[in-house]
Amino acid sequence: MRRARLHRSVMGSALLASVALIGCGGGSERGAATGDSAAAAAAAPARSDGGSLVYVSNEDTDNMTVIDPRADSVIETVLVGKRPRGVHMSPDGKYIFVAVSGAPKGGPGVDESKLPPPDTTKDGIAMVDAATLKVVRTLPGGLDPENFGVSNDGKFLYVADENGSTVGVVDVGAGKLVTKVPMGSEPEGVTVTPDGSEVWVTSEGKNAIYVLDPKTNKFVDTIPVGKRPRSVAFLPDGSRAYVPGEVGGNVTVVDVKTHKVLKTIPIPEVVKGKPAKPMGSVMAPDGKTVYITNGRGQTVTAINTANDAIIATFEVGARPWGIGISADGKELYTANGPSNDVSVIDAATHRVIKKIPAGGSPWGIAISK
User: Fold this and answer.
1) Within 28-71, where are the H helices?
2) Does the pLDDT of residue 188 top 50, yes or no?
């Protein structure tokens, strides 16, 4: 199957050959747009056939790697702003939104008291035109935005402000921050339910999900989950949610209608001598499997949603965080920060097919439809 895909990709070799591959990430590097220009208007889309692309945010190199999954090759590197992390597509596929931040990078083992002050002028959500791969504007997103959710109609963004313990509501069309809604400490993952009726926000500090009503922009419920929840993945029908807890070493299953915890799934504590740290999550298109990245555990865990049993936990790369899945559900992509690459995994066999060089410290992954 894989060989057939690569042979078919030869038909598109002229497109790939037209793009010069340079540096560790490959592809040419486009700068952020500073205004309308003839060059931006004339820029050709990365894929003229409208096919799927994989977008990877690179936290340490201020750019985004664009991968063509037909041959799993880098075709472009796009400057988007400082310290890009969360990355998501607009529902219509016209834009890629990327959270950028002027706050210095901290993390485990870093004495944050010795870090330089943040440059808040660099904070926001970069809005990248998917056709031209140009940053058309940077939306306000609060202080040090890390991740966010996109409303189902694409009109609003819900941005986690970890430092301010709020969620910012951004009107995309108006380019304005409508309001900031206070919540529990360290908001992180933000995901809109499939029917668009709720926005779920993880609070790392309170070990809970805060449920926002987008009609009123008020929190209506709080759901206790595992320690340090990082993301949320919903079944396609919106009936259940899966919430990885990094410190808890587990995944909490929640009934979306009642907001009640149904089950807690422990993730294997040690894989090849490394502890599992459940972080990112993605649901298969058919809803039969949810995949969880395990950070420093260097693995991904596949869970059968029919019975919430673990199918397998398999090694993918160095500290995988962001994860995406192809529209046909056949391939997974993980962002491996320490090794500056992206793993391509066959979802059926759980084998790494290829590792693709990206930018510095790849963080998030978005895949166009």
Assistant:
1) 38-42
2) yes
Which structure tokens are listed for 259?
């907001």
Residue 98 DSSP code: E
Q: What is the pLDDT of residue 46?
A: 46
274 contacts 293 by C-beta, under 8 angstroms: no
Ramachandran angles phi, psi of 163, nearest 5°: -70, -35
Instruction: Count Cβ atoms below 10 Å from residue 4 Cβ, excluding itself.
Output: 8
- Give SS3 for 240: strand
Characterize 230-265 residue by residue with b for buried, 16 or more Cβ atoms within 10 angstroms of its Cβ, and e for exposed.
Answer: bbbbbbeeeebbbbbbbebbbbbbbebeebebeeeb
CA distances from 318 to 155, 237, 314, 324, 352 (A): 36, 33, 12, 16, 13
Paired tokens of 233: 């993945």
Mean pLDDT, residues 181-187 taken together: 94
**CA dist., res. 336 & res. 342, Å (int):** 6
State phi, psi for 296 to the nearest 5 degrees: -60, -10
For residue 313, give every residue at least 6 positions away whose Cβ sits within 8 Å of its Cβ, in sequence order, or none.
267, 268, 271, 276, 294, 299, 300, 301, 302
Q: Which domains does the chain have, with CATH numbers?
A: 140-224 (2.40.10.500)
- Asked if residue 281 lies in contact with residue 293, where contact means CB atoms within 8 angstroms, the answer is yes
pLDDT at 31: 59
Tokens found for residue 129: 């035109």
Amino acid letter at 167?
V
pLDDT tens digits, 288-324: 999 999 999 999 999 999 999 999 999 999 999 999 9
Other C-beta atoms closer than 10 Å to the C-beta of 205 total 14
Q: Is the dihedral of CA 10, 16, 20, 26 positive or negative?
A: negative
- Residue by residue, DSSP assigns 191-235 as EE-TTSS-EEEEETTTTEEEEEETTTTEEEEEEE-SSSB---EE-
Instruction: Enter the pTM of the model.
Output: 0.87
